[in-house]
Automatic annotation (TrEMBL):
Signal peptide: none
Start and end residues of each HTH cro/C1-type domain: 2-29
Protein name: Uncharacterized protein
Molecular function terms from GO: DNA-binding transcription factor activity; transcription cis-regulatory region binding
PROSITE patterns, alphabetized: HTH_CROC1, HTH_LACI_1, HTH_LACI_2
Family annotation (PANTHER family): LACI-RELATED TRANSCRIPTIONAL REPRESSOR (PTHR30146), RIBOSE OPERON REPRESSOR (PTHR30146:SF145)
Residue span(s) of domain HTH lacI-type: 4-59
Length: 327
């Protein structure tokens, strides 16, 4: 059976090849809703699948978006990709997803592989703080960063309101009459997100004279964390975990060692996928929305792909503090 051509489909839909091509490329400007729906119905009825390689050669667009996350096993990454995919699918783009495993070398290799595939744009959760690490991308492809900023601000970035939300959390801890806060995090100064969250807590402890300690996690063994935290339980203490992974590690350690929450120690932190209400008494947490971060990042990237270089902006989305029963 002869393969359908774009001319065949355009004739069946009663439109020009140019109009059909614009539809297939997700460009609906100057196209009525009735025309758009008619074309969509004809394409579905004929089960027409355009040759993307041929389209790419003609339009100089591959309709591929690259995604590079720091750690694919992290639930944050899963929800982030869900948001990006939701919009990309609507707009006719396919995704190429890669994980850097928190390695600068792997990340650099991933980015070069995406460039080799002629992606139209990249959304990246960077492993490095220095914008100069990504200068090689400047003239090659549109780039939007998520979750973590680079310094100085060089590309559009979408993240949660890390500073304000943790400042709110620390204020809640103070109101619960805790004398001491212990922050548990992966190395703070490697990632701007962690630093912003720590700074939000520190602003409150400085203002009200609370004591503050930092335990940086270099090992996923909860017993190592237990020995690190034992020294910090002589006062009324609240533990704050700065991301979902470290919060999970803290809770695992406390449960294994039969530490009562909040009778012996208060616990709270960041929750990336709304699981903290199911644990123990219900864990007080900051819930961000990685899915919406992904949607917003995809919107910014597609704007730049279609309209050229856009103003650099740092889009900060609100995070919600859920006060439960762990403080």
């Amino acid at each position: 059976m002869k393969s359908l051509t774009i001319s065949d489909v355009a004739k069946a839909a009663g439109v020009s090849k140019t109009t059909l091509s614009r539809f297939l490329n997700g460009n609906y400007s100057h196209m009525s809703e009735a025309t758009r729906q008619r074309i969509a119905q004809v394409v579905a009825d004929l089960n027409y699948r355009p040759n993307r390689q041929a389209q790419a050669l003609k339009s100089k667009h591959s309709h591929l978006l690259g995604i590079v996350v720091a750690d694919m096993s992290n639930m944050y990454s899963t929800q982030l990709i869900t948001g990006i995919s939701r919009l990309a699918r609507q707009e006719g783009y396919q995704l190429m997803m890669m994980s850097s495993d928190n390695s600068e070398a792997i990340e650099h290799d991933n980015l070069n592989r995406l460039l080799d595939q002629s992606v139209d744009g990249i959304i990246m959760q960077p492993t490095q703080r220095d914008s100069a690490s990504y200068d090689f991308l400047m003239s090659q492809v549109p780039l939007v960063l998520v979750d973590r900023q680079t310094e100085p601000l060089t590309w559009p970035t979408v993240s949660s309101d890390n500073y304000f939300s943790t400042k709110q959390l620390a204020t809640l801890i103070k109101q619960a009459e805790y004398q001491h806060i212990v922050v548990v995090s992966e190395p703070i100064h490697e990632v701007t997100t962690r630093e912003q969250r720590f700074n939000g807590i520190q602003a409150v402890t400085n203002e009200f004279g609370l004591s503050l300690d930092l335990v940086e996690v270099h090992d996923s063994n909860p017993e190592v964390l237990h020995s690190d935290l034992l020294a910090y339980t002589t006062q009324k203490t609240a533990i704050v975990a700065l991301n979902g992974r470290t919060l999970s590690l803290v809770l695992k350690m406390l449960i294994r060692n039969h530490v009562l929450i909040p009778d012996t120690v208060g616990v709270c932190g960041y929750d990336d996928w709304n699981w903290t209400e199911l644990v123990g008494p219900g864990i007080t947490s900051i819930e961000q929305d990685p899915t919406q971060i992904g949607v917003t990042a995809a919107e910014l990237l597609l704007q730049e792909i279609r309209n050229g270089k856009q103003a650099i902006q740092n889009v900060v989305l609100p995070a919600e503090l859920k006060n439960r029963h762990s403080l």
